Fold this sequence. Notes:
This protein is an all-alpha fold. Helix content is about 80%, strand content about 5%. It has helices at about 1-5, 15-45, 50-60, 65-85, 85-95, 95-120, 120-150, 165-170, 170-195, 200-230, 235, 240-260, 265-285, 300-305, 310-335, 345-350; strands at about 10, 15, 290, 300.
Amino acid sequence: MTQFLAKPLIDGNNFLQLLWFFVIALVFAIFLFLDGIDFGVGMATRVLAHNGDERALYMRAIGPHWDANEVWLITGGGAMFASFPLWYASLFSGYYLLLFIVLVGLILRGVSFEFASHAVTDRERNVWQWANFAGSVIAPFGLGMMLTSVIQGVPMDAQGNVHAGFFDVVNWLSIVGGVAVVFFSFLHGLHFLSLKLDAKTSERMLNTSKKVYWIAYPALVIFVILAFIFTDFYQRRTKSTLLITVVILAATICGHIATYKKRGGFAFISTGVTLAGIIAFIFNGLFPNVMIATDPSKSLAVSVASSSQYTLEIMTIVLCCLLPIVLIYFIWSYYIQRKRLITDDSPASIKAASVY
């Protein structure tokens, strides 16, 4: 068994290195699927809600889940630190300014739930609802920019130190990537609200989704064109990249059709597949590297960036023990909070209620 685990399988990487590369991709895909809901609902509080009471109701829809959803981001960072420390060091040191902006967005959104529900005046509550909206836009846009600027290749030295300049981070591909993540998170949140609120509000969410899709399509098509120009994904990993691209486009079209047929659940799954597909697109293109350098000889490969075999074995045992517990908890938490919220609640009751 030990010999099999240490045996090179694909591009010089052994089973555990491949497993943890896949696990990290899966964790980030789950994060974008779940926290995309929270980002989208946060945007809807300003785009669709008519007043402060309705905004509070939207926030209540994600109140029991948002902090647990965010744990997947921390888990992904922790797994990266433990299984690929050189990847973690290069990414977090090279993109610390952008990551700091993302962190500010996440903090703004996080504190807004507590402060909005404990606000004494309408003005105070409005301020923290604006903070929720701002954080819900800043965080996915920053994450989208970081993920898509990484895949173009960044200036790195032989030690894996990233020397990214302003235009290495802020360019056409990264901006379009950030916009695409924002729009699909918004759609994902609208679909979630269509499942959580009453029939009248649900229909309003789906009707808005129909229009937003026509904005999301160009962002997605432009992203694919720019990815073809600025990366080698379509030349180096042609079949798998084309397959993932087709899945993303098909899921988007299916989601749009579902909004016309008033199938909120199907539309929600479709946008979730689209968001997870973006992560699959990036990780598929990165492999067998974890960081792509502008000078290919200095790219950081999976086999070079990984921890020792013993460390990966211990992590795999821990993963097998804890993952079922975490999954059961998440399924249970969504199951017990499955009932729809009623927008006919009196304003007084909405103000008095906690977002949790």
